[in-house]
Design goal:
With about 675 residues, this protein is mainly alpha-helical. The protein has helices spanning about 5-10, 15-40, 50-60, 70-75, 80-85, 90-100, 100-105, 120-125, 140-170, 175-190, 195-220, 220-225, 245-250, 265-270, 275-300, 315-345, 345-360, 375-400, 405-430, 450-455, 475-490, 490-520, 530-535, 535-550, 555-575, 580-590, 605-610, 615-635, 640-670; strands spanning about 225-230, 235-240, 245, 260, 365, 370-375. The chain has 29 helices and six strands.
């Protein structure tokens, strides 16, 4: 039957079945995430794909299989539960942080405003209150948190359309991760025999591999030197079977040069999604910083006196310290070049992207011969700038310092606008951010970006750290979800509607369940072990980091400028060589790839975690891409391999996620026995 109207061409993505699944994620999974975080200090590693497969198979058994549009909506929003689960736990953590001995010792407690946390006398009374948020002292903090969530939704959606028009429609970037996820959605919905077999077999392989290299060391930790240690607020499990570090052995010949390899097959499999040219650029970026760069820093004795080099340093420690003292500024300069230089080199592409959004009422062609109207760019820009300006106005209301207005406009408005471009460009050619909570990775973003902008404001009071200063760069993730909508035959308006629904319900769920957990036992308390074991460590780390930031070591404007110039030269040369992707892949590799590990960490702690793994992970991805391009694709056939590799990679990820979830359940059971009398 020929379909003649737009409504007939698209199948609905928002149905009662998809909404039931989303409600399950919000009101069942979200409280589990909250409880697990209170017990362990890290986010529950619940991969959205596990829930998606559960719902897909359950609906098939009931005789009403999900369509690919419904599966697409589940993919887009099951992970949203993780984002909003802890939203209203932050004010409680802020109250705790404001009243710790460390806060008073560093002189911070007296500067914490009441719009961030209740004063000490009120906080002590609240510990005896059953329903925490019913006290009027929470009106200001909760209003600010809710306002930021509203700004987030508006900026994400508006920039999502703009980034979609520029990077998907105009520049036609590949977005390997988002494309692979869309392929798996179609596989689960249509049950095609060969892709389904590849998906299931690779999932089984992921289960076996992660069981061997992660789950068994977790069970046998005391015998295999496996350990738990803290980075920032998170407790990290370390398996000795994942990485082999030769850095200390190389020190007598090449002091400071990092050299490590990984046995984590996950990193090799990710390389299947990327061409060797991209993974080589990532490897060059990681090698330049963490082998050549750290060696030169050591050779010329550039380490500061407070951090003298030792030949016993492993790669983790060398990369972390080099990043703090040198490479964060270098990465920022390169990232700025990767953002602005391509736009300056090809301004017509930007104009064409906006002109596509300017054609009011005209339907834009997408995949499968479908058409859909896109909102006009005037509306999108009005929404984006309106939300950003509202955020600036809110900050100015909280800290009425006229000298901050220009900087706030530059950083909140301009920073959010162009960071979305940077993240979209990175996600378009790499697999950075793999494993993030949303449907598609947001893409690469420079480490400590928010701290850098706050530092650059020039305001040296503690209050500035508690303002709702937010950089809204989520447009990259939305753009990728729109790309997936094209591949799955779904309407973007359905995505937007579901996004708003899930945000509102997710915030309500977070408010209700955190209030409920408080009514059971105050937070912090012995009922929630992480709040008395992890929170003191994370608070002290947070305060010391910001004290250290004021000393001026973390952000060096001279290195940012020199790196920007170097990045500009690199882009111009590689662009003439028909490799415009090189700089963004180089920066992604230098920044740690954002792939695997570090889940549940703060932005700064995640940067720390990823820096030490940049070189081995980049090497693994390069090897994986070579294996795929030179060995597998020629035997299977390039066209056939391109159709199946998304299922292979995502299937392997699903298997890994299943074992991680199993390990987390054991942790949950063990820590839940904290209060038992035996």
């Amino acid at each position: 039957m020929t379909m003649s109207t737009e409504i007939e061409k698209y199948s609905r993505a928002i149905t009662w079945r998809s909404m039931v699944a989303l409600l399950f994620g919000i009101f069942v999974i979200q409280p589990a995430i909250i409880y697990y975080t209170l017990l362990s200090g890290v986010a529950l590693p619940l991969a959205p794909w596990i829930l998606i497969i559960l719902w897909a198979e359950l609906s098939r058994l009931l005789g009403s299989p999900l369509t690919k549009q419904e599966v697409y909506i589940l993919l887009s929003f099951q992970g949203m539960a993780s984002i909003f689960a802890l939203w209203y736990l932050n004010p409680i953590y802020g109250m705790y942080m404001a009243n710790t001995p460390a806060s008073f010792a560093f002189g911070m407690a007296q500067d914490i405003p009441d719009w961030y946390a209740p004063p000490p006398d009120v906080a002590s009374q609240l510990m005896n209150t059953r329903w925490i948020f019913l006290n009027p002292v929470w009106i200001k903090p909760l209003f600010i948190m809710t306002s930021v969530a509203a700004f987030w939704v508006i900026t994400d959606i508006s920039m999502g359309y703009i980034c979609y028009s520029l990077f998907v429609r105009e520049q036609k970037l590949g977005f390997p991760l988002a494309t692979a996820q869309a392929e798996v959605v179609v596989t689960l919905a249509e049950r095609r025999k060969k892709p389904m077999r590849v998906l299931m077999l690779s999932a089984l392989a992921g289960v076996i591999v992660n069981f061997a290299i992660s789950f068994l060391p977790f069970l046998l930790g005391p015998f295999l030197s496996s350990s738990w240690y803290y980075i920032g607020a998170a407790q990290i499990f370390w398996s000795p079977l994942l990485y082999l570090d030769y850095t200390p052995y190389l020190a007598p010949m090449l002091p400071g040069a990092g050299l490590a390899f990984t046995f984590d097959l996950f990193q090799y499999v990710i390389g299947f999604l990327l061409p060797p040219a991209v993974t080589l650029a990532q490897l060059v970026g990681a090698f330049s910083l963490y082998f050549v760069g750290t060696h030169l820093i050591t050779r010329f004795d550039l380490w500061p006196s407070e951090s003298p080099y030792s030949t016993s340093w492993p790669l983790d420690q060398i990369a972390y310290r080099a990043q703090l003292y040198f490479f964060i500024s270098v990465i920022m300069g390169l990232a700025l070049a990767a953002t602005f230089v391509p736009l300056a080199r090809r301004p017509r592409a930007v104009l064409r992207a906006f002109s596509a959004l300017a054609r009011k009422g005209e339907k834009e062609p997408v995949n499968f011969g479908l058409t859909e109207r896109l909102p006009p760019y005037t509306l999108l820009l009005a929404l984006f700038f309106g939300a950003c300006l509202a955020n600036v106005a809110l900050i100015y209301f909280l800290i009425p310092d006229p000298s901050l207005i220009l900087s706030l406009l530059l950083f909140v408005v301009g920073g959010s606008f162009f960071l979305s471009f940077l993240s979209s460009g990175a996600a378009g050619v790499t697999a950075s951010g793999f494993g993030s909570a949303g449907a598609a990775a947001a893409g690469f973003a420079p480490p400590y970006q928010t701290e850098f902008f706050i530092y650059s404001l020039g305001h040296r009071g503690w209050q500035v750290w508690f303002t709702p200063f937010t950089l809204y760069n989520g447009g990259a993730g939305i753009a990728q979800s729109f790309l997936q909508a094209d591949g799955c035959g779904a309407k973007k308006t359905d995505f937007v509607k579901a996004y708003i629904i899930v945000t509102v319900l997710g915030l309500i769920s977070s408010f209700l369940f955190i209030s409920l957990f408080w009514s059971i036992s105050p937070i912090p308390s012995g009922a929630y072990p992480a709040t008395i074991a992890v929170w003191p460590v994370s608070t002290l780390d947070w305060i010391r980091t910001r004290e250290w930031i004021w000393r001026g070591f973390l952000f060096r404007y001279d290195l940012i400028l020199y790196s920007f110039i170097a990045g500009t030269i690199i882009y111009i040369i590689t662009d003439f060589a028909k490799m415009p992707y090189f700089l963004i892949a180089f920066v992604t590799g230098a920044g740690g790839l954002g792939v695997g590990g570090g889940g549940g960490l703060s932005a700064g702690a995640a940067a720390t975690w990823l820096a030490g793994r940049a070189l081995p992970n980049a090497t693994a991805q390069f090897v994986g891409s070579l294996i795929a391009a030179k060995l597998i694709a020629p035997r299977v056939g390039l066209e056939e391999f391109n159709l199946l590799r998304g299922n292979l990679v995502l299937g392997f990820t699903i298997g890994i996620g299943f074992i991680d979830l199993l390990r987390s359940c054991l942790i949950l059971l063990g820590k839940s026995m904290w209060l038992l009398p035996y």
